[in-house]
Structure formats: C-alpha cells, structure tokens
UniProtKB/TrEMBL annotation:
Species classification: Bacteria, Pseudomonadati, Pseudomonadota, Betaproteobacteria, Burkholderiales
Domain Phosphoribosyl-dephospho-CoA transferase MdcG C-terminal: 111-223
Nucleotidyltransferase found in the keyword field: yes
Gene that produces this protein: mdcG
Transmembrane regions: none
Keyword Transferase (UniProt): yes
NCBIfam families hit by this protein: malonate_mdcG (TIGR03135)
Top-level taxonomic group: Bacteria
Protein name: Malonate decarboxylase holo-[acyl-carrier-protein] synthase
Sorted UniProt keywords: Nucleotidyltransferase, Transferase
InterPro entries found in the cross-reference section: Holo-ACP_synthase (IPR017557), MdcG_C (IPR049180), MdcG_N (IPR048903)
Pfam family name, one: MdcG_N
GO-annotated molecular function: nucleotidyltransferase activity
Start and end residues of each Phosphoribosyl-dephospho-CoA transferase MdcG N-terminal domain: 19-101
C-alpha cells in the first residue's frame, strides 16, 4: 500500500520554495512531453508512472536548464536479477506540474520499512518533535508499493532543524540510532542548503568546511555560516 504525502498542493508557483527531494506530479500534458523526449528503454516505466499517478523527484538543476523548466529524477526499483539501479533524468515545464509535496514523512512510511520497521518506529517516536522526512529507496517503496529496499539499502533521512538546539539533538539521535539501523541522509538548513549529517558530525569534531548541495549548485561552506541561519535557542 503506497503512502501519499500529507500536503500535496496545486503548483501555482512551482519554483517557490522548491528543494531537492521535493515530490512532483505531472499533468497529462507534462507526461506526454516527457514520453516524447524519452529514450525507448525508459518508455515502459514512464507509462507505468503516468498510469499510477506516481511522482518524480526534484534533483539538482542542470547547468543549462532554462528558468521555465524543473529537473527531475525517476529512480526505478533495483533489477531483480542484476540489482542494477536505473535513475531516469527528466525535465518538465513548470506549467506542466500539477502539484508538489515535500518529501515523505518518516511516520507515513513506517509500514514500508521492512526489517527496520521496529527500529525506525522507535526513532520516529524519539524524534517526533523534529518532523523527520525520508527520501531514496524507502520513500519510493512507500509511494509506489514497488520493492526498492534490499539488505544493502540505506535509510535516507531528511532533517530540517529550526534552531541550534534542534540541530544538536537531531544529530545526536541519528548517531545513536545509526549503530543499529543503516541511516544516512542530510541536514537541510534554511534556503535548502543540504549537508550530509554524518559529514556535519565529523566537522563539529574537527572544524572544517562542508559540502553543501543546493538546487543549482554544490559548494564548500564553512559551518559557522550555516549555524548563523538557525535560531540560537
């Protein structure tokens, strides 16, 4: 059974507040444009996605993407025989976006957590005040009902701290639970500046600049400038 995001809304301003990992549903016109541009080996998967009304995922924008386009990814389940993971890269006109939603809430995807369900239920309970979200294999499995998770899969967490206290608490909790769950993922600072939470933890122990991924760029940023975007409490 697939999990539907809690706040999918009509895309009146599709680029406003858009971040990597945002879920995007295309209109009929949008799917037709995507199918016309698709490689032959991808058309069956794209037709399935259209028929099931499943979302694509916002990825970092291509350097040559015009202002009226959004860059999307459509990750397919691992091949049953080879384990190969195919990720289809798409572009869509902003006018062809019917609605968008933030990444899936961890709480909404627990039924799709497989062998990690009990451990992730405990994590969600302890971090309820942090409103964790997920992306990657577990998110796609919850959205589509297809089999994405494998024994080697990571559980990719998205964590949007509002204050330095929440940042500290969140990293501490993720670190503790990562001893028995394959947690990975990103801290997303205001403005969509995303940093691997594991890299952030290391940078706090040994002060250094960190790699920040944004909608239009990847760059090195000092930790102090990221901390300044959060409330002091």
């Amino acid at each position: 059974m697939s999990a539907l995001p809690e706040s999918a809304q009509p895309a009146q301003s599709p680029l406003r507040g858009l971040e990597r990992h945002t879920l995007v549903w295309l209109s009929e016109q949008g799917w037709q444009a995507v199918l016309r541009a698709a490689q032959p080996q991808h058309k069956a998967a794209l037709t399935l996605w259209q028929g099931q009304d499943w979302p694509a995922v916002v990825r970092r924008f291509d350097i040559d993407a015009p202002p009226d386009e959004v860059c999307l990814g459509l990750p397919l389940p691992p091949d049953e025989d080879t384990g190969e993971k195919v990720r289809i890269s798409l572009r869509a006109q902003t006018v062809d976006i019917s609605r968008t939603s933030p990444a899936v809430e961890l709480r909404a995807a627990l039924r799709s957590a497989g062998p990690w369900r009990e451990a992730l239920t405990t994590l969600e309970r302890e971090t309820a005040h942090l409103h964790l979200r997920i992306y990657g294999s577990m998110a796609m499995q919850s959205l589509t009902g297809l089999l994405y998770l494998t024994p080697s899969s990571d559980i990719d967490i998205l964590f949007h701290p509002r204050s330095r206290e929440e940042l500290h608490d969140g990293v501490a909790l993720l670190s503790r639970h990562a001893t028995h769950v394959p947690l990975d993922g990103e801290i997303v600072f205001p403005g969509g500046q995303a940093v691997s939470w594991k890299e952030w933890r290391m940078a706090m122990d040994n002060p250094a600049r960190v790699i920040v991924k944004e909608l239009h760029a990847v760059r090195l940023v000092d930790t102090a400038s990221l901390l300044s975007t959060l409330e002091d409490r």
